[in-house]
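Assemble and predict.
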Amino acid sequence: MVTTSRLIAYLSLAISLAGVIPLFVWLETFPRLIVVLGLAIGMLQELRQGRWYIKSWQLNLALVPIFIWYILQYSRSNPVQPVVSVLAIMLAVRLCGEKNTRNLLQINLLALFCLASTSLFDLSPTFLFWLGLLLLLLPVSLIVLTFHAQNSRLVLQNSEFRKILMAALLILLVTLPAMAVLFPVLPRTAFPLWHFLNPPVSATTGISDKVEPGSTANAAETRSLAFRAELPRQTQPPYWRVTVFNQIQGNRWSRNPVVPLEVSIPSGASVSQTITVEPSASRLLISLDTAAEISLPRLKVAPDAVFENLRSFSRRTSYTARSFTGGILTGSVPIRRAFYLTLPGKLSPGIRQLAARIRQEGRSDAERLERAEQHFLNGGYRYSRVGLPTGHDALDQFLFVSKQGHCEFFASSLAILLRAAGVPARLVGGYLGGEYNELGGYYLVSEDRAHVWVEAYVEGKGWVRTDPSRFAVNAATLWSERKKPGIAARLRLLLDALDYRWTRTVVSYDFERQAEQLRSAGAKLQTLEHAMRWRWLLSSGVILLVLLALFKSRKQWFCSREERLLRRFKRIVKHRFEALDGLDTLGLFEIAAASGDIRVRQFVDRYAAAVYQDKKLGPDEIRQLDRLLDELQ
Amino acid sequence: MNTGNNLLFLVVSALLAFMAATGYAGMFNIKGVIPELLPPDEIFAGTPARFKVLLRNKKRYLPSFLIRLSVAGNGETLLPFVGSAEKLESTLTLSFPERGRQTVGLISVSSPFPVNFFTRYWNYADATTCIVYPRPLPSGDDGAGDDAARPGSRTKEIHGQDGELEGIREYSGAEPLRAIHWKLSARSEELLVKEFGSRSAPPLIIRLESLAGTDIEEKLSHAAWLIKQRVMEQPVGLELDDRIIQPASGRRHASLLLTELALYGHH
């Protein structure tokens, strides 16, 4: 047994918590303090049975200077904090005050606003949890509040409260699917209206804009997430192409933005994928090697198939790409060989000799490439991230002395060898492999998967990808598929799959996807095979008819035995006494009198005796009445 | 690209969906809730009368909440819970300004459930008619038109059981046993019985024309008051224009007389 006033006070506290907890971490110190204070006072009041109210006007007066302060704080560069601070403080103040119907409604609304404003800071799926909690609590609170408004001294029995809970739950059950339908159809704009509220990029990752083997002795590894790529599992660890380093100075490879004109035509099997990148300062786009097209509105595509977005990714962003896995064909325009044959000023004698040998042994680009690969394959090189050669002759050291290094050493030295041997070559930066999430159907690629490989130009074939790191003696252990993940890893993958779904279906849903869904629905209808369409039409027609029949006969199925008996009686009488006019308008006794049949009379007498006195027919009576009807029939 | 405000879209769609759900819930709440009015035995014009209301929830599985029954500008009653397939009883206080045959008219079934933003209602046409008696007005002329003795004056000829002891006589065999005076009988040879006078007053015939009052309504009101006051104590009759209703007493007779007054001039 509980009074409605206590109940709504508790509920409003719970709702405030659900609204303010997710926002709390983003608040500044002052509003945080006020929120804690407000919650504490609110709880204390409930413990003291709602006494020692601070007067509403006193609270409102106290709010005025705070309002003014935050209005002064508001600026284009700081638009969010003042707003959320005011929201949180207002909520806290309402919690301290008197709990009348209006204030309680305000508490509910402010809590919802607080939660909504969390989305200005954080887009994680925990939002859904808090929203779900609020959607569960709000209906209960609003219903109890309605009871309270009707009768403020109402005391609810446990059974009655259970009924209210049930009603709230039913409302929630209707709300959720309706919400799922409304969310995608609510009109979106092509450009974000709230863009100015976006906070600056918090995390900046991305691959480096240069490759310089020999600069450090140990390479750092970070496991932070780079991107996710949704596509079917590939048989080989996929290469994710990002950028091309086309010039070398000393040991440093970098990208010359003036890329010589060429016509790149990716060849091979086409693979579509959806890439979701983490916030990053980099504008380079990631795709499976080699992308032919990427669906983003504002792009710059370089001749060497490097895609660049015109804006950096301030938020987690998704785009789709279509790639071809068979290398890059070049069109009719010949490539500028000289550009891709440029060597660093000082080249060690060892490298020169090796390159000269390769050049001699191979007659064509293809043969020379093969010789160079052979060198790495048979040279006993080891892949390693520690104990790396350093200094200006690091490559020389790697090639002829230590024979261990990471991908930058392998790729860089192969590219230089190729160039020195007369084969145009360039370095490609990107990622290799990734953890495939079976549940979500995507590759999870972390920063430590960053990789560098080589593209060599083979006359007649175009640009061919070659990855000398794969020729290391320990390559098999490095890139082979990992063993079955443990429970912790699987749980992590599961959580990541949920997070990914959340991003794909909710966070990055936009006007384009909305339009695309409409288009694809239309296209699907059009492309349905003719026969298929007929079958489809036929089956949906049948289903419709069945549903209609069910709807028509719903009374038959769901009516009481008495009603069914009466129905049957009327049907029989109508059939038997066709002369009777206006059967539907006649009363039972009138029908009996008009028919003049003793059995009709008997039926009506027995039926009316029970039903007209609001009694239910017993099984015996029903059997008798049924028998009478059988006889009549 | 749409940056992040999708979560706000989520909140907005939740609110819209919630509105739709509550709208539907509100409609469903009052659906299948049928009121039935049972008028009280006596209704006097201008005097609040307590009607019994039977509220039936025809929904088989779902209860209804906060059902408010009201009759336009008259009375209303609130039932917080009506269980599924339940029949609840409540009262509704209504008053009718005028005498005669009256119908309650429209009963509105409404509810602010589930959230107090809108009130959903539907009107139920109630065909129950009730006879509203004239408003009783105290009358100073309290024996108006009686052609027998004044009330309170005893009539010796009539013996009864409820008057004062008037004498002792022999038991004839017809008197009830409790009338036997056992003390005296013990002393004498025969059974003796106590003889009581009757307190029953003589019949009162109310003659409408001779009642005080400026118009017929006032006269009817005085007559109603007299009937209410007297009919349990003495036989009361009524003379209306050229008709006379024979005096009798009791509740049934009272309602007969009051009905005559209520419908006077309405035929």
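Chain B touches chain A through 35 residues (CB under 8 Å).
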